[in-house]
Here is the input.
Amino acid sequence: MTTNRPNVIEVRNLVKKFGDFIANDNLTFDVKQGEIFGFLGANGAGKTTAMKILCGLQAPTSGDIKVAGFDVYHQTNKIKQNIGYMSQRFSLYEDLTVKQNFQFYGGIYGLSGKQIKERTEYFLNKLELSHVANKILKEIPLGWKQKLAFSVAVLHHPKIVFLDEPTGGVDPITRRQFWEMIYEAANEGITVFVTTHYMDEAEYCERVCIMVDGRIEAMDTPSALKNKYEVTSMNEVFIRLARAQSTEQ
Amino acid sequence: MRTILYILQKEFRQIFREKAMLIIIFIIPMVQLTILSFTATFEIKNTNIAIIDHDHSHESRNLIRKFEGSSFFTMSAFYDSYEQGAEALKKGKVHQLLIIQPNFEKDLKRDGKAKVMVITDAINGSAAAIMSAYAHSILMDFNKQLLVEDFPQLNVNDPIQITVSNWYNPQLNYTTYMVPGILVLLVTIIGMFLSGMNVVKEKELGTIEQINVTPIKKYQFVIGKLLPFWIIAMFEFSFGLVLARFIFGVPMLGSIALQLGTVSVYLIVVLGFGLFVSTITDTMQQAMFISWFFMVIFILMSGLFTPVESMPDWAQTVNTLNPISYFIQINRMIMLKGSVFSDFAQQFYSLVIYAVLMLTLSVWRYRKVA
Amino acid sequence: MKGFIIKEFLHIFRDLRTMLILFGMPVAQVLLFGFAITNEINHANIAVLDQAKDEISIKITDKILSSGYFDLKAVLNSPDEIEAAFGRGEIKEVVVFEPYFAQKLEKEGRVNIQIITDASDPNTASLLFNYTSGIVRDYSREMMENKQPPLQISIESTMLYNPELKGVFMFVPGTITILLMLVSAMMTSISIAREKELGTMEVLLVSPLKPIQIIVGKVLPYILLSFINASVILILAFTVFGMPINGSLIFLLLESILFIVMALSMGIFISTVSKTQQQAMLLSMFVLMLPTILLSGFIFPIENMPMPLQILSNIMPSRWFIIIVKGIMIKGLGIAYVWKETLILVAMTVFFIGLSVKKFNIRLG
Here is the structure.
């Protein structure tokens, strides 16, 4: 069902080394438009590094990589125009109000004053957070802040949004709501590239890619992977793969 | 351009949100300008002198009266013995001792020769030289007076007379000299630290990552980061000028436009320097120490407190890298002497080169990576 | 508690740059200032406007220039050139000889030399005038030598403690003070403010450590660091600048520790009143740096200041420490002479620690 959609991310033989340490070992994958693509793996498996390369925050050591049709070596600014990003570490301004954060990032992405106002109202209404619009972020709970960070990342309606462990430290209900927001974004045609180490979240993805020690160990839809390893949950798929890895060593 | 405006808006919001910051940025420096400008004087007055008169004669009393009459000295004690005087010097109660030997008057009348001793606490060498010179000149005057009384026909005056005219500041008013310098200093501290801390703060708190994934251009970022502090510092400088004129009565002989023009370039140097430090460090603590280190060196060598000409040649060479020194010179020249552009063109161009260099370095060093 | 102190040490020592700044920079600064900061005159640029150009005016000019205090930067030909020369700032003084100088001196026995100074810098101006007129007066006296006056008071002048009038005697104690003050107070205030800003302070506060233990743990590494710094500076003062240590070295070190603890407690206090590192830093800079330079007697003698500022200078800890350092190093004094200053520092330390602990507890409660 996804085959007739165009690729928005194309990765061929991505390698990233830090000195002797190989963070990404020859990664090759494509992500299609409107897809929710999950990047799974334990801490230190190389997920964040790969994501930062795709966002133009780090240069790869080698490989052909295209994001939104642009090359990650020379066209990072063009890429940045077309993506949204939500960092693992909360990185909106804690000493500004919710509204001011929206205004700032909207302005940076070149939205008009009117657009900023409309989009801000739209998201605050949807998140039911209008009552904190003029509060500084320091004073509101983490779960709300994460939802706001996601809204900021899609404020300018990017082609792709990158979410780096967006639900870390968030309660189950908020996590649920968070995934609803992700689905909504995908319905609007935004491609969602999400890293996580919560295996239950992997079930929500259209396709997942499991990384172990910098390499891609498996990549398919969650149901296909479960069939292949003859288990009932993604958690078990992951444990199989990780165990296979450690016995090899 | 719009992007830059949005950054400006954000920076101002962050600065003005904190009341404490406002006080630190605007009020404390102005209070300091007002107070500290009065501290800086080498003019020596009220030197505490103690007298040990072993003679107790008519002439020795005359001599003491001569010292009492001078505004330079404050008679703080009369002692009977040298030991008491030495103790007072040790305790720092007095800075000078005048010892009149026994038979002072007798020797003077009989042999035409008598001796007094002057002992000066010389820890502050340059002050000691002046104190000792004053004591000498009073003694010489006293000597002359005796000569006139005893030998009225003698020409006691030096054949070569010296007159002095002190240009630009005939009253040798020290505050007018310090105000332009301290003003530069305060504006520099504010500028360098606000800009120096700013980018590294975003790094430390992680907010820079979110900026780095946006399509913002490097130059937009750098301008957006410099401009708010430039505006604040310009405002502060202008306000300082008003204080200088109306509280301290600094003459302001030169053109105000010229002054604002030069400070606007100087501030780019200072802010660029801070920004550069900010781009090469990871934590605010590091950034602060590096800025602090250069700041203390720049300030103490700037010629603000001690004249640059007094420094050894190598130090003067080091000082050619000191932007504060250039600008204090320029600022004083314009305000106190009414100098025109051609008078300080060389210093000004040095600042321009410095500014360009600093901006280039910070744009070059700022990487949009995480 | 032990683990906590080790963590603080690790924070400081892990980072090479910080280490370099903490140890290398004070040393660099002492060397720089010890040599460079002085208000003695040497090689000041002057100009001569000699309207006579006769034997005596040339002789006096030579005498002035050979003193080593002055460099002849320009020879002016008319009074109109003076203003431009001052305007460019290339000279600080002009010596003007009137026309027919020697002739007039011989005929009338009286002649005039005018000294014009650039008094926009009044300090230098008056020093230059004093130096120049001293040289001229000497010359004038030499000329009269054959006519020895029949009555003379001779002056025996002694420069106590610093016979060569070296500037370093004044500046080294000041530099030690300012460095200890800034390193200790700024470092602690920022390191505590940092934990507050990054939220790690909360973790410490919920731990079973008592507030006072947290403070001690934060401060201990800096006491050690500052103490090493103080020792290095003293060694430099002794070996490089030839400062004597006439008093007891141990006493001097003890007083230094007292001052360091005082500065640290000030740093703690600053950190309790500031919310962010930036605030702590700017506060330290303004509250500590300029007043330490200007109100402590480091460069400008306190007796010369207006009365209100003399009174204000009493609350500057550095003022008292400078008196102590000079007393011990140069005058060779013991506690009998500086007990008052020592007591003031102790009182200030207690005051700041008390205030900080109170603030700290309020925040907890």
